[in-house]
Amino acid sequence: MRRLVLLLLMLISSAALAAKPFDPVDMVNTFIGTTGPKGVKNYGGVCPWVAPPHAMTDWTPMTQLNFISQLPFRYEDRYIKGFMGTHQPTIWMSDYGFLTVMPEIGSPKIRRDDRAMAIIPGSEIGKPYYYSVEMGDSGGPAIRTEITATTRCGFFRITYPKGPTPRFFVEMSRMPGDEGWVHISPDRREIIGYNPDRMNVYDGKDMGPQIKNFSGYFVLQFDKPFEAYTAWEDSDGVRIYDGQQDMRGPNIGALVTFPVKGTGTVKVRIGSSFISLDQARANLRREIPAWSFNKVEMQTRNKWNNLLETIRIHGATPAQQTIFYTAMYHSLLFPRKFYEGGRYYSAFDGKIHKGVLFEDYSMWDTFRALHPLLTLIDPGVVSPMIQSMLNMYKEGGWIPKWPNPSYTNIMIGTPGDAIIADAFVRGFRNYNLKEAWDAIYKDAVTPPEGDTHKRWADRAPWTSYEARQGLTYYKKLGYVPADKTNESVSSTLEFALEDYCVAQVAKGLGKEKDYRFFLKRSKNYRNLFDTKTGFMTPRLSDGSFYSGNPKKYTAFTEGSKWTYLFCVMQDVPGLIKLMGRNNFISKLDENFSGGHYAYDNEPENHYPYLYDWVDQPWNADTILTNVVNNNYRDTPDGISGNDDCGQMSAWYIFTTLGFYPVCPASEEYAIGRPFFPKVTLHLTAPGKNTFTIIARNFSPKNIYVKSIKLDGEPLHTLFLKYSDLYKHKVLEFDMTDKMGEAMDYR
C-alpha cells in the first residue's frame, strides 16, 4: 500500500511538473551560432552576449582577438583570453569603444596569450542574462567568473581560489595610434578611463569617415580593496609601473591585486558611456546602484522573459524550443540603444544631443524580416528606431545604410527607405513624419557626391557616402549601367523596390503625384530583363545588354544572375507576366533543383514563398521543411550562415509560424506551413490581441497544408495581412502528408 501511495505521489508530482509553464528565457542557448566548420569564418557570426534586449554594451568571453571579419568568441576555442565589453554587432563589422578585462592568479600577465586560461570542461553556462565559466589547468587552482549586465553596465562576480595571488587585469586601449587613458583610484576602489579605439580599417582601407570627439568611457568599481596596483603599457614591449595611478597611450591598462587572504569573491561593477566618464558613472549609479549580483541578474532575466513570452510555442520538442527562443534572443539584440539619460553622442556630427538614438542597423539584411518582426514582438522600439534614423539624417545629411557607429558604404541602395515605409504602413508613426518624408525623398532623387565619377563598390575605400550609387543614370536611363557603376543589376532591383516603399509613404501622406511617380519607377526592374537569356542582365549606358565576359563588370552583390532573378518583391505578378507563367515556374523550380538557391543569403530569403503566387504552395512546404530541419540546430554550429544581426533568426521565426513578409510596406504575408502544433502570439501594439495558430493533424510527416481557416471560415487565399493578426483570433491549418491533397488553386 505504501509503495502504491508513493507511486501515486510521484505520478502527481511529475504531472504537475510537466504542466508547469516554462520560462522561454531558460530555453535560450547563447552558444548556438558561435562556431562553424573549421576554417570557415562566415558561420553564425554571433557571440554568447550577456545583455538586455537592444543593450548599448554587450559582454562576452573572449577566446581570440577580434577585428573586422573576426568576433572575439568562437566556441571551438577552449581558452579564455579575457572578457569584453564590446560593440561589434556582427562578424563583418567593426568594434569601437570597447574594453577587455580578465581575472588572473599568480604573477602578472599582460599579453593575450600569456593570460589565456583553459575552460574547465562542462563549466560554461550561457544565457542572455548570465554567463559563467571556470578557468584553470586540469587539477590546478581555478577561477570562476560570472557575468550579468544591464543596458549600459556590466556586473562581474569572480571567485578566486585560495593560495595564488588574486589579480584583475584591465586593457583600456588597444588600437595602434589611438591614445587612451586609465586612472587607478585605490581609495575609491575604482579604475576609470577611456579609449577612442575604433576598427575603421579593413584590408588597408578606411571603411568610413573619421569621427569627431569619439571615445568609449568606462568606470570600474570593486567591492574589495586593492593590496597593490600597477599601470602598464605595451607599445613596443611590455612595461609595468608598480604603484603608478595614471597611464596614457595607445595600448595601456591597469592591473590590481587583492589580498591573498580573505579575498574569496570579488564583485566588479562596470559603467560604460559614449558621452563622458561622468555619464558612465551616472549610468552605473542608475542601473546598478547596489552590490546585489543576483538582483541584477533577475532583473535582466525578467526583461528577456517578458519579450520572449510574446510568442508561446506549444507541442515543440525541447530542442525546437531552444532553437526558437534562441532565434528570438538573436532577433532582439540589435539595433542597440545608444542613448544615455535622455542624451546621446552622435558619430555623425561629433556632438551630444537630446533624444534617442539606436545604432548598428544591418539595414540591407534586416529590412526583410527583422524589422517586420519587431512590430510584433517588440513594438515599443519601432518608432524610436525610426526617429533614430531621422536623427542620423539631420546630423549627417543622409539616412545611413549600415551605421557602425557612423556612415559605412556596406551593401547597396538605401534600405532605410524600406524600414521606414514598412513601419509607416503598419501604423507606427510616433516620429517626425515630415523629416521621414524629406529623408526618403532625398534618397530617391538626390545622387551621391561624385556619382558620375565613381564606380562605387562594396567595401571600397571611403570617399563619401554612396547612398543610391548610380542614381544619376537610374533617373536618366531607368537602370544603373554596368559600364558606369559596379553592382548595377542588384542596385537597379534594389532601387525599384525602394521606389515602391517611398511611393507607399507618399500615398499615406496624401502626396498623390509623388505616389504615382515612384510607383511607376518601381517597375524599372523590367528594364534589365533580357528575353533572350531569361535573366536580369547587365545593361550598358548605350542601351545594349552586355553578353561578354561576366568578370569584366561586377553586376551582382553577393550573388549571381540566379540570386537576383526573382528579386522583385514589390511586383511579383508583374514579374510573372514579364517572364511568362510557365517560364517563371520552370526557372523557380530550376533555382531550387539546380543548386542555385542559397537560403542563407538575404536576397533569396523570400524565394520559397514565390510559389504562392503561382498557386503551388506545396513546393514551398517541401523547401521550407528542408531548410528549417537542415540549417537550424541546437548546437554551437546551429546557424549555417551569418545571422546578420538577427535577420536569419527572424526568417526562422516567421517561417515556423507559417507566414512571411515578402514585400516591405505592403502589409502582406505569404503563407507557408506551420512547424508547431500550436502557437500563441500575445500582441500589444498597435492594438492588443491574442492570435493563435493551430496545426491540425500535425506530425513530422504531415508537412503539407490541406486547408486553412481564419476564425473558422475557409481562407481562399495564400496571403494574410498584418491587420488580420489584430482583427482575428485563430488561424487553423489542416495538415497532410500527401502532396496531392495539398491546397490547389489552379
Give the key terms:
single chain; alpha+beta; Beta-galactosidase, Chain A, domain 5; 9-stranded antiparallel sheet; 36 strands
Span of the ends, CA to CA: 66 Å
Q: How would you name the CATH homologous superfamily of the largest domain?
A: GH92 mannosidase domain
CATH topology type of the largest domain: GH92 mannosidase fold
Largest sheet descriptor: 9 strands, antiparallel
**Global geometry:** globular
Tell me, rounded to a whole number, the average pLDDT.
94
Side by side, the strands of the main sheet go: 6-7-8-9-20-15-12-11-18
* Residue share in helix: 25-40%
Give the total of beta strands: 36
Low-confidence stretches: 1-20
Strand content: 15-25%
Annotated CATH architecture of the largest domain: 2-Layer Sandwich
The figure for the number of domains is 2
SS element count, helices = 18
Which CATH class of the largest domain? Alpha Beta
Q: Over the alpha carbons, how many angstroms does the gyration radius reach?
A: 27 Å
Structural class: alpha+beta
Quick rundown:
This protein has 746 residues and is of the alpha+beta class. 27% of the residues lie in helices and 22% in strands. The chain folds into two domains: 43-308, Beta-galactosidase, Chain A, domain 5 (Distorted Sandwich); 311-739, GH92 mannosidase fold, CATH 3.30.2080.10.
Could you explain the architecture of this structure?
- The chain has 2 domains: 266 residues, Beta-galactosidase, Chain A, domain 5, CATH 2.70.98; 429 residues, GH92 mannosidase domain (GH92 mannosidase fold), CATH 3.30.2080.10.
- The protein is globular, with a radius of gyration of 27 Å.
- The N and C termini lie far apart (66 Å).
- It contains 18 helices and 36 strands.
- The N terminus is likely disordered.
- Strands 6-7-8-9-20-15-12-11-18 form a 9-stranded antiparallel sheet. It has a 7-stranded antiparallel sheet with strand order 1-3-4-10-19-16-17, with no helix packed on it. Strands 21-31-32-36-33-34 form a 6-stranded mixed sheet.
- A hairpin with a 2-residue loop joins strand 13 and strand 14.
- The longest helix has 21 residues.
- By secondary structure, it is α+β, with helices and mostly antiparallel strands.
- Helix 7 crosses helix 8 and helix 9 packs antiparallel against helix 11.
